[in-house]
Amino acid sequence: MNDPLHSQRGQAIVLMALLMVGLLAFAALAIDGGNTYVERRRAQNAADAGALAGARELWLHLSTLDSSETTIQRSINEAAESNGIEDTNGTAGDTVDDNVTAYYTDRLGNKLGVEVGVAGIPPNAGGINVVTQRDFNTFLAGLLGRREMGANAEATAVIIPPQGCGDYAIFAACETCGPNNLATTGSTMVINGGGLYSGGDMHLNNTVVINGTVYSVGTCSPDGQCQGTGAPVINGGQPQTQPLWDIHDFRPGGPIATSLGGSYHYINGNLTSLSQGDGLYYVTGDVQINGAGPNTVTIVSLGTQKYNGTVNLTAYYHNLLFFSDSNNTSQGAIQIAASDSVWAGLIYAPNGDVNFSAARNLGVSGAVFARSVSASGSQLTINYDPAVCPPTRARVILLK
């Protein structure tokens, strides 16, 4: 005859055993879960360090036209291994580490599908993406059969190239825009420092250039006015190229937008006021400002920009004041009819024209860089400031 009490005692032992397994699982989750978070952070630090080191080395290769990838691979692996990634291939800081994989990206951080060290540096490479793997032993989870776990992490670093705008207060780059590539008609213009550059022809009227050069790849006319600027005149020279800002760097999610955080103002449409305060405005439409300031801003737009009234503005981002990506060559990508205004920074329209029309008592401390430039019926003074586009070292930033 079975003993009911003895049977109940046996069930209790089974229940206690199941309970201990459950408690052990919870303890493993707490202890090993916390350790997994720490190991994941170590893997992320290694990925960040590898991406930054690789992007810096990539820039050195791009700037010197060095196509070798050996030092790029070594820089990535050495940085990752110095931050806790095990080199399972034997030699630390060499070109092979099975726990580190790197890919080239463009300047927005998009993978180009090319692994570092496999098929050469792509022509549009502008960054490095690094994936790291870190294996580690568990504590209590090993008692449940899980003795080893892994932590993966990924990071991307991109290059922001240096910028420059040369030695010219006005740089009109177009080589095929005819006699009005750089034209001052019915205007009084004073260029104080720097000079005038036209990739094609130039037509001047009532223009004074102080401590600068009048440089025209085509011809400068009329001769009397060109010689009357008070500056040396060069006709028929060779076109000069200048470093360019890239509109892609300013778009949402791009390296500049990411670096600015709350000072980046995205305007999906047209911009008519600076109500969001100082910072960088990225505008998908057109800009029309009728009086503003004092403000410290950088205004970047896909459409045209028009400024009227009294405008007092100083550049916010790297001395860049206005940047229009518009190719408007009729009214102008950037149209200025402001009066009694003071601006400081670079006015930039690489694909279109900058037009000063009936701009009275307008003072610009900086420079103008455009496809072509015209001034009609304006009283314009440009105090050239080479700091608006200083020669700078390339910057490398992590994309988050």
Strand content: 35-45%
Mean pLDDT, all residues: 83
Name the helix and strand elements from N-terminus to C-terminus, one letter apiece. Answer: HHEEEEEEEEEEEEHEHEEEEEEEEEE
Largest pleated sheet:
18 strands, parallel
The number of strands is 23
* Unreliable residue stretches: none
Amino-to-carboxy terminus distance: 72 Å
Rough outline: elongated
| Alpha plus pi helix count | 4
Characterize the structure shown.
- The chain is an alpha/beta fold.
- The protein has two domains: 4-160, no CATH class; 170-394, no CATH class.
- The protein has four helices and 23 strands.
- The chain has helices at 4-64, 70-82, 223-227, 255-260; strands spanning 100-105, 111-115, 127-137, 148-160, 170-172, 182-185, 188-192, 196-198, 202-203, 207-210, 214-216, 220-221, 233-235, 264-267, 279-283, 287-301, 305-315, 320-324, 334-338, 341-357, 362-376, 379-384, 395-399.
- The strands form two sheets. It has an 18-stranded parallel β-sheet that branches. A five-stranded antiparallel β-sheet has the order 2-1-3-4-23.
- It is elongated, with a radius of gyration of 31 Å.
- It starts with a helix and ends with a strand.
- The model has no long low-confidence stretch (mean pLDDT 83).
